[in-house]
Specification:
Blueprint: H1 2-35, H2 38-41, H3 47-55, H4 58-83, H5 86-92, H6 97-136, E1 151-152, E2 158-167, E3 170-178, E4 188-200, E5 206-218, E6 223-234, H7 253-261, H8 274-289, H9 293-302, H10 317-338, H11 343-369
Helix pairs in contact: 1-4, 3-6, 4-6, 4-9, 4-10, 6-9, 7-8, 9-10, 9-11, 10-11
């Protein structure tokens, strides 16, 4: 009997949790993906790179939304069971409320381990891989560099200006400033290129310029001017200035630990500056600390089991415990931002949920001990 009730409660919770998590993740991912369109429109990456990069960020979104989805699922599950009078049947059967509290707490531990796995292992791996996609991808939409009456500096060290687009892949008055030795010859410090006409090849790998000149400036500041009737530049190997090196969020948890404990300066993102060490501690606390707030949310929502419909405050309980839970999650988000400043802040960040979990659990035991449960 008890196992049947547990399985039913778990199925109801899991249904609400997955629906909420899926719906919120899709909304956030869609909004984020729109922001990533700059990878195509501004940086010139292919749509395949854009979709792959966007898709690989889903795990980060899911991890971020897990505590909130858990909160919504807890409240919805309890309200649904209470509204359908299923809780009354369960209490009438003689099942102690603390057993259901224990069930929700065990479920929260599963979600906690799941979020811990995502945040410490899966997210850094996928995010680092997504960054490598940008690093290894070549520009696929060269025409995105040739925007009419705009100075385009998508490629680092290269600025392109087009006065007018006359037809498909044909441009009027093309100006190019090459400060990164991308198009200029080896030994030149910079090159300024002007042409009356520019044409992109059909495969978009070559830019053919007509009737212009190239002004080369050497490292010794000697200036030479070369006039041309026709010249061709290879654009197939140029890449954008999109950030290609992994950020701290994309660094493995083991590397961050080695950086903080062993001070491994040879590791990526392991600078031994005060700001860098603070960022490393904050990132580590996000990964290992945030999951501990999920069991605390489960116990907070468990106070809804003590509600009685004959009490005037009954209809406000959802709002009260919902607000308390949101405040707990808000505190967790705020405190983690300051947890890397001092070790005392880190201690408080972990101490807050670890101290309140047994406190809330003892309060629930005391509350149900004197309540008529049959």
């Amino acid at each position: 009997m008890k196992n049947t009730i547990y399985k039913y409660f778990f199925r109801e919770f899991l249904k609400f949790f997955l629906i909420t998590l899926f719906a919120l993740s899709i909304i956030v991912w869609t909004i984020q993906s729109v922001n990533f369109l700059d990878l195509v429109t501004e940086d010139g990456h292919a749509f395949a790179t854009y979709f792959s990069y966007s898709f690989l960020t889903i795990s980060k979104i899911i991890t971020k939304l897990m505590p909130y989805s858990f909160l919504v699922a807890c409240i919805f599950t309890i309200n649904k069971l209470d509204k359908d009078n299923e809780l009354i049947i369960v209490w009438s059967s003689g099942l102690n409320k603390i057993h259901i509290v224990n069930l929700f707490f065990r479920i929260s531990l599963i979600i906690m381990v799941l979020q811990l796995t995502f945040s410490t292992i899966l997210n850094p791996t996928l995010l680092k891989y997504s960054r490598s996609l940008l690093k290894n991808a070549q520009l696929q939409f060269i025409p995105s560099l040739m925007k009419e009456k705009q100075f385009n500096d998508t490629v680092e060290g290269l600025t392109i200006f087009v006065d007018k687009k006359e037809s498909q892949n044909t441009y009027k008055n093309v100006f190019i400033q090459d400060d990164g030795k991308i198009l200029s010859e080896v030994g030149n410090h910079s090159s300024t290129i002007f042409a009356k006409t520019g044409v992109l090849s059909q495969n978009e790998n070559y830019l053919v310029l007509y009737d212009g000149f190239i002004q080369n400036t050497s490292l010794d500041q000697d200036v030479t001017v070369i006039k041309f009737k026709k010249t061709t530049f290879n654009l197939s190997n140029i890449s954008t200035k999109s950030i290609s090196e992994p950020k701290i969020q994309e660094t493995s948890s083991l590397d961050i630990l080695n950086c903080i404990i062993k001070k491994r300066a040879d590791l990526l993102n392991c600078k031994q500056t005060k700001k860098s060490l603070m960022d490393q501690k904050i990132e580590l606390n996000k990964r290992f600390g945030m999951p501990f707030f999920i069991p605390l949310i489960a116990l907070t929502c468990s106070f809804l089991f003590s509600s009685r419909r004959d009490k005037k405050i009954y209809k406000y309980n959802n709002h009260i415990y919902g607000i308390i839970s949101v405040l707990i999650l808000t505190i967790s988000e705020i405190s983690v931002r300051y947890s890397g400043i001092f070790w005392s802040h880190t201690f408080f960040y972990y101490f807050f949920p670890i101290f309140l979990i047994p406190l809330f659990y003892l309060a629930l035991i005391k509350k149900f001990k004197y309540e008529n449960l049959s």
